[in-house]
Amino acid sequence: MPSLSAPARVRDNRAAPDTTPLVRLENIGVRFGRKVALERVSLSIKPGEIVTIIGPNGAGKSTLVRTILGLVRTFTGTVATRPGATIGYVPQRLVADPVLPLTVSRLMSLTRRVDRRSIEASLEEVGAGPLIDRQVQTLSGGEMQRVLLARALLRAPSLLVLDEPTQNVDFQGQAELYELIRRIRDERGCGIVLVSHDLHVVMAATDRVLCLNRHVCCAGTPESVSEHPEYRALFGPRAAASMAVYRHAHAHRHTLDGEVVPLNPGTAPSDRRARGHEHQDGHDHGGTPGHAHGCGCSPAKEGR
What we know:
By secondary structure, the chain is of the alpha/beta class. The chain has helices at 61-68, 104-108, 116-125, 141-153, 171-188, 199-202, 222-226, 229-235, 237-242, 269-275; strands spanning 23-32, 35-45, 50-54, 76-81, 87-90, 159-163, 191-195, 208-212, 216-220, 247-250, 252-254, 260-262, 277-280, 291-293.
């Protein structure tokens, strides 16, 4: 009778994902003259992670971004970037000379030579393909941010840094832009750093939050930060409660012109209205059709 032997083990030769931080800041301090802009700030960003930096005006958020980009010298601490890491940057705004003819295609290739096919692919990825030959001066705020995001993606970044990407973008555009950023993270596996004031919207699109006011007031998951006493002291208990957790599920998308397009073209209009949006948040839309609200949000508890 033949003997039974244990099946041979199959070796898994797949490489484990590299979780080495793309950027690590340890106990950094930045000052301009005698003014201290940042002190004792530590932060690390890993691949596939979305980190959002929040804080009041003058808290040092943009200074921290410039430090990550290597544009600001620190007087204390260390900044280490993983060898080979590429950083893509989306600024707060881009002001174009109204009399200077500049197409989107030309803007995308101003600082480096890029073929048109690559430009088209990058614009399509962010939903801005039809804008390729438009004049930059004619773009809306939301269109401009998508173009700047597409421009940053041309570098195939391992870390994407966005400084207030939703400035001059309406509420619906903000939610869709954050969904796009999250999809880029999922598909590309890059790390993402966001600076934002859109607290209740951004919380659903981030993994970690760092609350800054020249130093790190608190950091952690969105839920834990919203309950932290220092967060409540900076933004007030009402903001903390309304920011509980914003969830956004769409059965439609919006074109660049704002037209609503159902994700399933065969869905009947009555079905689309019923399934249009589903929220759990602390706001309402004034009875807009296609919205159902189940708030279930309780005010943030006082810090323990």
